[in-house]
């Protein structure tokens, strides 16, 4: 996400930090580079211009803090200005109104609307709501099937729309059906076209008039840059959007859409899509995004992701096992599976401070396949082998390698790592904190 922009901005700001005193001229030349970096990232030119002017005013104005060096002050100012540009704080879905409420998803074909419908259902269910999915794209037959399939995978109730029904009728009937099933939030997956066209807008306006949704979101593809901003303007003009979901932020989107949408349309980005899986949806926090763009990481999102995945009871059991040296290969595998659920290792690393702005670190190739390999090896063991790794002799190793499509060396390596870890834990459990000292490499 935004790797280039991050790299450029961190390098400009690093240069600036090197100066003891900031003059108007070195601020000017730094800002010129900031503006170039923004334009290269496909930020709307007017937005880039205003942004730079704003920073200059703040940097040369009265906003100086005694405790910071001039260079640090500029970083602080850029960080705050980026945050303001994207909308200050996170804006959540609006779900107020007569029960059940509706959230209407709109957007062009291929933007990720149907996928986002599933992601939102999951997001809402985690927050204690009862979502009801409504396929209202009757023109593309596959769209209805796609959402029904997704609903069944996620175990979320779905309206039984059929091709040929009127989308407004679907939305009306879906409301009664949702009520009957005890659901409180309808997610309407409306039709998309390849381009903005009047017929589509007229249909969306009719749906809006019929169901009075509590929130209307545009789903837009971040990879399309300024097009996404123009599309947002058109949809907002016709529908008065509540906000935007920016999808495919896991790809190499340059950042233009994320940085311009709020400034151009006045409507906030509420969520970002970060992958094809149904769990790959993040609430959009302008301050955290700004911090990520400046290479300062986003530890808060990382912690939230981890907390969502952690089962407190399981964590306590695990802690007990570690203390008693009973941590088996099976536990090891469960840990890997839960790490994998959080997303790709490379993306998670980038949320740590200093990683994404650093050329060497951000190019680190974190191989998610390595985890998959370890998982496969442990899966090919028998239950007994997982409990008592000492019984895994040469012939067993061969069998495990064959079963998991890996080599005996791979199996050896895993067992070696595991036994080393167990040894370390033993040492730690015996000596407490003091023993840690001997284990650290410095
Ligand atoms: P729709 O036509 O707007 O309903 O779009 P779909 O939901 O069918 O999505 C189009 C394609 O984009 C599918 O292949 C999705 O898997 C993919 N997609 C959707 N959201 C994301 C995302 O956040 N990241 C990535 N990498 N792919 C996505």
UniProtKB/TrEMBL annotation:
Domain of life the protein comes from: Bacteria
E.C. numbers: 3.6.5.4
Keyword Hydrolase in record: yes
SRP54-type proteins GTP-binding domain: residues covered: 268-281
Entry binding sites for GTP: 107-114, 189-193, 247-250
Keywords per UniProt: Cytoplasm, GTP-binding, Hydrolase, Nucleotide-binding, Ribonucleoprotein, RNA-binding, Signal recognition particle
SMART domains linked to this entry: AAA (SM00382), SRP54 (SM00962), SRP54_N (SM00963)
UniProt cross-references to InterPro entries, sorted A to Z: AAA+_ATPase, P-loop_NTPase, Signal_recog_part_SRP54_M_sf, Signal_recog_particl_SRP54_hlx, Signal_recog_particle_SRP54_M, SRP, SRP54, SRP54_GTPase_dom
A Pfam family reported for this protein in Swiss-Prot or TrEMBL: SRP54_N
Principal subcellular localization: cytoplasm
Record text about domains: Composed of three domains: the N-terminal N domain, which is responsible for interactions with the ribosome, the central G domain, which binds GTP, and the C-terminal M domain, which binds the RNA and the signal sequence of the RNC.
Family per record: Belongs to the GTP-binding SRP family. SRP54 subfamily.
Role this protein plays: Involved in targeting and insertion of nascent membrane proteins into the cytoplasmic membrane. Binds to the hydrophobic signal sequence of the ribosome-nascent chain (RNC) as it emerges from the ribosomes. The SRP-RNC complex is then targeted to the cytoplasmic membrane where it interacts with the SRP receptor FtsY.
Name of the protein in question: Signal recognition particle protein
Upper lineage: Bacteria, Pseudomonadati, Thermodesulfobacteriota, Desulfobacteria, Desulfobacterales
